[in-house]
Amino acid sequence: MNTTILGLDKNKTEELASELNILLANFQVHYQNLRGLHWNIKGNNFFELHVKFEEFYTDAQEKVDIIAERILTLQGQPVHTFEDYIKIASVVVVKNVANDVEAVQGIISSLSELISIERGLLNLSDSADDEGTNSMMSDFISEQEKTIWMLNAWLG
Length: 156
Ligand SMILES: [Fe+2]
Prior knowledge:
Oligomer: single chain
Low-confidence stretches: none
Bound molecules: fe (ii) ion
Strand content: under 5%
Structural class: mainly alpha
Distance between the termini: 53 Å
Mean pLDDT: 97
Radius of gyration: 17 Å
């Protein structure tokens, strides 16, 4: 078997890096969506949601860096331009949303899309014996599932 410096299958690692780039692009759109919601939110829940969305985008920003550095660890090249992100990402762009319910529904939808990409990655990393990516995806998924529960609870 042709292996990488980490002792992982080379072809599977290349596939993983490429899928991680898709996740990275989607996270960048998700991040920018959250910034827009943080800025544009209006109404009685402004103070609560303005702060909550900042918490979410700070978390997304940290995850963007973790994903990019995992790609580098797998000897791949992380995508880093808006041009590429827009081409690759499937998360819906949220634009000019000021309504609280619409904002929270938009975040749930983005998180669901991210989780579905992460589950695909989890299958790949499992078959590649890539425990590093595997545990990263598991952590992301369980955190995001919990956030979806909380957002749903907020919707009532
Ligand atoms: Fe701010």
